[in-house]
Design a protein that fits this description.
Elements: E1 25-31, H1 37-48, E2 53-55, E3 63-71, H2 78-82, E4 86-94, E5 96-98, E6 107-110, H3 117-123, E7 129-133, E8 142-143, E9 146-147, H4 148-153, E10 163-175, E11 180-187, H5 193-203, E12 208-218, E13 221-222, H6 232-239, E14 260-262, H7 265-272, E15 277-278, E16 290-291, E17 297-303, E18 306-314, E19 317-323
Parallel strand pairs: 3-12, 14-17
Antiparallel strand pairs: 1-3, 2-3, 4-11, 4-12, 5-6, 7-10, 8-9, 10-11, 12-13, 15-19, 16-17, 17-18, 18-19
Length: 328
């Protein structure tokens, strides 16, 4: 028998695929500092091995706080969680503008002007309501298929168009020192806190950037009730399913703004087969549904107290838009 060649590769051992778990719902995660949102998703994916997972709204590595994670069938509702109002508490450092509008960028310009508390508080109402805002150059917005931050890092001149965003309130919280103040903003989808800090400083005759940022609320998720990555392994190792109620929130958490319609068994069966069905007006919790950008009215469809689908309504007829496979 010939001896094996010294250069021969050892046979590969077969890879054992880790089983996926049927987990359907949301995790209210408190993202730690210096971790990307993608890394946070990866960490939870490794711990829990859900069939599907995604997040609802990126947080920069500099930012901490609420990062809603959708697992399993909840991934079908991510867009509605992203549409929820959000609250951020952030620190503005006056006197230095950076390339990224936060502390991670390089200093561009400097100013000796340090606005006092009264001037800052008086300026904040100018940023409430529907306003026009230019996103930071270092942002994930695409220009001709390329991310703005990739173009900026490559040294290209990036020009972003202003966008309309909604800010419900902007409040002065406290002064930390001569340079820094803490503010809080409640805002809608697409608002950049870095742009807000930059524009506020400019209005006050200075320049500035965000030196700290914490998202304290997204929809019904509050940071006071968020779970940390350090805690999740304990739940996963001890008995994941037995402890699930401690960290898993229902799919409906993303659907607070969408009214319900109650279906009988026949109507529910038609929806499950992808068909429309007639529904009497009395079955709708509200006369008007959640109005989408295309003008269609959206409802949550329930049967026997359980969510089965998202449906579009046209008068007395509902059509299935998203079905939830929850083995009900």
């Amino acid at each position: 028998m010939n001896a094996p060649s010294p250069n021969a590769r050892a046979p590969r051992s077969p890879q054992i695929k880790r089983p996926k778990h049927k987990i359907n719902g949301w995790i209210n995660l408190d993202k730690p500092l210096d971790m990307t949102s993608t890394q946070a998703v990866g960490a939870v994916k490794h711990l829990l091995a859900p069939e599907k997972i995604g997040h609802a709204g990126t947080l920069d590595p500099l930012a901490t706080g609420v990062l809603p994670l959708a697992l399993g069938e909840a991934t079908k509702t991510v867009q509605y969680m992203m549409d929820s109002m959000k609250i951020y508490r952030f620190t503005v450092c006056f006197g230095t503008q950076t390339t990224t509008d936060d502390r991670e960028g390089e200093a561009m310009t400097h100013s000796d002007v340090r606005p006092d508390d009264a001037a800052i508080a008086a300026a904040l109402p100018h940023f409430e309501g529907t306003i026009s805002q230019v996103p930071p150059v270092y942002s994930a917005i695409k220009i001709a298929g390329e991310r703005a931050y990739d173009l900026a890092r490559a040294g290209e001149h990036v020009v972003l168009q202003p966008r309309s965003v909604y800010i419900a309130r902007c409040s002065f919280i406290e002064r930390l020192n001569a340079d820094e103040v803490v503010l809080e903003v409640e805002c809608g989808k697409g608002t950049y806190v870095r742009s807000l800090a930059r524009d506020l400083a400019a209005m006050l005759g200075s320049c500035g950037h965000v030196s700290a940022l914490r998202r304290t609320k997204v929809g019904r998720f509050h940071v006071d009730h968020a779970i940390s990555l350090d805690d999740l392994p304990n739940y996963a190792i001890s008995d994941m399913y037995a402890s699930m109620d401690a960290w898993l929130e229902p799919i409906e958490c993303a659907l607070d703004d969408i009214p319900a319609v109650t279906l009988d068994a026949t109507q529910a069966q038609r929806l499950r087969h992808g068909n429309s069905c007639f529904v009497p007006p009395s079955a709708f919790a509200r006369n008007t549904g959640y109005v989408q950008e295309d003008g269609h009215e959206l409802y949550q469809a329930y049967h026997a107290g359980r969510l089965i689908a998202l449906v579009l309504r046209e008068d007395r007829v509902v059509f299935p838009l998203r079905q939830f496979n929850l083995n009900h």
